[in-house]
From TrEMBL:
Protein name listed in UniProt: peptidoglycan glycosyltransferase
Domain Penicillin-binding C-terminal: 577-654
Domain Penicillin-binding protein transpeptidase: 283-503
SUPFAM superfamilies in alphabetical order: beta-lactamase/transpeptidase-like, Lysozyme-like
Reactions the enzyme catalyzes: [GlcNAc-(1->4)-Mur2Ac(oyl-L-Ala-gamma-D-Glu-L-Lys-D-Ala-D-Ala)](n)-di-trans,octa-cis-undecaprenyl diphosphate + beta-D-GlcNAc-(1->4)-Mur2Ac(oyl-L-Ala-gamma-D-Glu-L-Lys-D-Ala-D-Ala)-di-trans,octa-cis-undecaprenyl diphosphate = [GlcNAc-(1->4)-Mur2Ac(oyl-L-Ala-gamma-D-Glu-L-Lys-D-Ala-D-Ala)](n+1)-di-trans,octa-cis-undecaprenyl diphosphate + di-trans,octa-cis-undecaprenyl diphosphate + H(+)
Species of provenance: Ruegeria aquimaris
Top class in the EC scheme: transferase
Involved pathway(s): Cell wall biogenesis; peptidoglycan biosynthesis
């Protein structure tokens, strides 16, 4: 009869909720935490995950050695505790089982009063009837207090030892067994002596019981205690917040990021922004262009109000400056408009009312397409864009996986020079496709996402030709040449500086500027962002991966060996016009050395359409002259480049030495 009443009493127990909230975790590709969030009441409580078996064995041996045999209450332990209390006049050891401790923890109830103890016994007995032992043990590992706002063994291991609880040392396990008994009084950062005494007491008792060897105890006793709490991982905050907002009910998110690489890149950008000056921020995306996996995503240099660090600059739409020029050239190669060795005019030109100018305001006359891209000249790329049609460029960007936004409804020629809004993430996507031969995987960071491939931007031959040109760019001081195909960019008004590049395996994009769009006078992508790009590759891996060889169909010829239509760039409609009578500079001939008499020399011209203009080292000195013999003033000495332009924009040039 009494047993039936006891069973009824236990079965009627109303249990508190056993499914407690745990913090959301963002994890890297190897399961390491990138960022963890507190639960609603400010507690650090995490899913326990795998726990060191040695710690569990030590916990059970010290706290509740008959855990797997009792029904929630251990009468022998309670009798022992009562006898010791009567003998010593104070509590020497507790009689609570782990199940009773779980009952107290999930109810957050009192421990010492008889009413509280009776309630713990009732809940413990009910727990044992309704839950398996493994789940009860898991509840303890999740709820045990470890000082401050730490709950659970995993939060404790991360905070006290900066490690997962999968592999704890004997000394670390002993401390984590001791702390929940008096979590505030035994905190090693506040009471080192009490923490050491509690840890050592456990070690000695387990040695007396033959559980630990003398050598193990000696090594554990010599191990230092932690002196401070470690901060919880707070890596990739912008991406973490974005993932959490996308699925508020999920407790765990697995990413493609690498925690070690992410940490290195965040440190690099914080340093770069500090050197760049106040209010400057920075962003970076690093990816494996063979798989599309994003390895690091840094949205800002730091969460500082002065730098507007809360703005995720990997997703912000900004002017890309010159970083889209390689795609214009690649499309022109595919359309048969040009070849890397094709000659193209860098001279004044008008497209309706639009007159593009180079960044330095100079003109270089006839240059190879390779040089035009490496020097990032504006006029040649606009000529090619006009021949292609800007809509073709925009369509290629869309196929490549980018979402570019035009300031007006339809694209104009200025899109080639940065007259479009695009994000850093999308630029890295496009350069990753370029690195993969004109078509590559779409970038991804959520391991639950299906892997997809972008559309084709350009042919593999054109992509290789563009990469080969970009690999010939002069690197920042101290960096090796020819190992990275990269391009820099500076938006109008020096508002954005960019550097994006790739080797045979990885692609990285860097942005520096001010999130509010205010200018940064004197900032250029080559000076500000390029050194950060090369340093990022240095921190990513020990050495660069080699760039690929040319595809079999690649035409590797000099300018003079090219087919006639590719030797000099002419728009498609020019094929139906008469071949222009280009001006020829008869005197002085190219390579001549001259003495300027009376401070001037006389230029002699043939052909071309008057009036003529003369530029010396890119600067106009004679404009709209109707004459074919032009007296040109000489103001300097040494190597001088003379450029003659006629009324149709045709040109000839010579390099001479003035003495």
């Amino acid at each position: 009869m009494a047993r039936d009443r006891l069973d009824t009493w236990i079965d009627a127990t109303v249990l508190p909720p056993v499914l407690a909230e745990t913090g959301v975790e963002i994890r890297d590709r190897d399961g390491k935490p990138l960022r963890v969030y507190q639960v609603g009441n400010g507690i650090w409580r995490l899913d326990p995950g795998p726990v060191d078996p040695g710690f569990v064995a030590m916990l059970l041996r010290y706290e509740d050695k008959r855990f797997y045999g009792h029904p929630g209450v251990d009468p022998l332990a309670m009798l022992r505790a009562t006898a010791q209390a009567l003998r010593h006049g104070q509590t020497v050891s507790g009689g609570s089982t782990l199940t009773m401790q779980v009952a107290r923890l999930i109810e957050d109830g009192p421990t010492g009063r008889w009413a509280g103890k009776l309630r713990q016994i009732r809940v413990a007995l009910a727990l044992e009837r309704r839950l398996p032992k493994e789940q009860i043990l898991s509840l303890y590992l999740q709820h045990a207090p470890y000082g401050g706002n730490l709950e659970g063994v995993r939060a404790a291991a991360l905070a006290w030892f900066s490690k997962e609880p999968r592999r704890l040392t004997t000394a670390q396990s002993a401390l984590l067994v001791a702390l929940p008994q008096a979590p505030e009084a035994r905190r090693p950062d506040r009471n080192m002596d009490a923490a050491r005494m509690a840890r050592d007491r456990i070690l000695h008792r387990l040695a007396d019981q033959g559980i630990l060897s003398t050598a193990d105890v000696r090594a554990a006793l010599s191990e230092p205690l932690p002196t401070a709490l470690h901060g919880f991982p707070q890596l990739a905050p912008h991406l973490a917040d974005r993932m959490r907002a996308g699925d508020p009910t999920a407790r765990q998110f697995d990413t493609t990021l690498d925690a070690d690489i992410q940490r290195k890149m965040e440190a690099l950008l914080a340093e770069a922004a500090r050197k760049a000056g106040g209010r400057m921020s920075a962003a970076l995306v690093a990816a494996d262009h063979q798989t599309g996996e994003i390895l690091a995503s840094v949205g800002s240099a730091a969460y500082e109000p002065a730098r507007q660090g809360f703005v995720d600059m990997t997703r912000a739409l900004r002017s890309p400056g010159s970083t889209l020029k390689p795609f214009v050239y690649g499309l022109a190669f595919d359309q048969g408009l040009a070849h890397p060795e094709t000659l193209i005019q860098d001279s004044p030109v008008m497209f309706g009312r639009y007159a593009p100018r180079n960044f330095d305001g100079q003109f270089r006359g006839e240059v190879r397409v390779r040089e035009a891209l490496q020097l990032s000249l504006n006029i040649p790329v606009v000529r090619l864009t006009e021949a292609l049609g800007p809509a073709r460029l925009m369509a290629a960007l869309t196929r490549g996986g980018a979402s570019a936004r035009l300031p007006s409804g339809s694209p104009g020629l200025a899109v080639a020079l940065g007259g479009v809004g695009i994000s850093l993430n999308d630029l890295v996507q496009l350069y990753g496709g370029l690195a993969q031969g004109g078509q590559g995987p779409l970038l991804w960071y959520d391991r639950t996402q299906p892997r997809t491939t972008s559309g084709r931007i350009m042919s593999d031959v054109a992509a290789w030709q563009v990469g080969n040109i970009l690999a010939g760019l002069t690197p920042p001081p101290g960096a090796r040449k020819g190992i990275l195909a990269y391009k820099t960019g500076t938006s109008y008004g020096h508002r954005d500086t960019w550097a994006i590049g790739y080797d045979g395996r990885h692609v990285i994009g860097v942005w520096l500027g001010r999130p509010d769009g205010t200018p940064v006078p004197g900032a250029f992508g080559g000076d500000v962002a390029a050194p950060v790009l090369f340093e990022a590759f240095g921190r990513l891996k020990p050495d660069f991966s080699p760039l690929p060889p040319p595809p079999h169909a690649t035409l590797l010829l000099g300018s003079a060996e090219l087919p006639q239509p590719l030797q000099r760039f002419r728009p498609r409609n020019a094929a139906f016009d008469e071949i222009p009578n280009a001006p020829q500079l008869l005197f002085p001939p190219d390579g001549a050395a001259l003495y300027a008499e009376d401070g001037e020399i006389t230029l002699k011209l043939r052909g071309g359409a008057a009036p003529f203009s003369v530029l010396v080292n890119g600067e106009p000195v004679v404009t709209k002259s109707p004459l074919r013999e032009i007296a040109m003033p000489v103001t300097g000495r040494g190597f001088t480049t003379l450029l003659v332009l006629d009324a149709k924009g045709q040109a000839d040039r010579a390099t001479v030495t003035l003495r």
